[in-house]
Design brief:
mainly alpha
């Protein structure tokens, strides 16, 4: 099942990115460099390899960041377009694979995994921010676009570049929040075992 999901997820991610760039490649939007764009590749690779760095990244990016797509979707098209369905399928794969990793494959994120997710996210920022500035892009919602071109929640964070710093800080807090249940549960079971 793990291999089948992994192969399907990679196939979906490749086909989506080929379809997205089918007419003409635009550096400001054509690279799969949004968190969810990268997570679409990380999710199946996680299931195929069970690499701890990928598992940590998938867990934190899926539950702290990609889950926001279900709360406030950044959609530019309705259900009559393929883009609408690609969007929902991609985000469902990301969150579904993260849930599969936790429930079926018993991944339990620890503080070291939080550190791994912070390191990968810092590398992501170092790559994406210069590209956003150079291409006038908005990868990771960190670019300098007008308020009407970004999701309302992101726009509510203020003007760029302060908005980017606030978004990064909120992501870091969200990472800690999704790590806490596992740490509290682990502490509870250790105390219970010691009693």
């Amino acid at each position: 099942m793990r291999w089948a999901l992994g192969v399907f997820g990679l196939g979906f991610w490749l086909s989506y990115n080929i379809w997205w760039n089918r007419n003409d490649f635009d550096a400001a939007s054509g690279f799969p460099l949004h968190i969810c764009g990268l997570s679409g590749a990380i999710a199946p690779l996680t299931l195929l390899t069970l690499d701890r760095w990928l598992r940590a990244t998938l867990y934190f990016w899926a539950f702290a960041l990609a889950s926001q797509a279900f709360i406030q979707p950044a959609l530019a098209a309705g259900p009559a377009t393929p883009l609408f369905w690609w969007f929902w399928a991609q985000h469902t794969i990301i969150l579904g694979y993260a849930i599969f990793d936790v429930t079926v494959l018993s991944f339990r994120p620890g503080w070291q995994d939080l550190r791994r997710a912070f390191i990968v996210s810092a590398i992501y920022l170092c790559v994406v921010m210069p590209l956003d500035i150079h291409f006038g892009a908005d990868y990771g919602f960190l670019g300098d676009l007008p308020a009407d071109k970004i999701p309302p929640f992101v726009a509510a964070l203020g003007l760029w570049p302060a908005r980017a710093f606030i978004l990064v800080a909120l992501a870091a807090v969200a990472f800690v929040v999704v790590a806490l249940p596992w740490q509290l549960t682990d502490r509870h079971w250790r105390q219970r075992s010691a009693a």
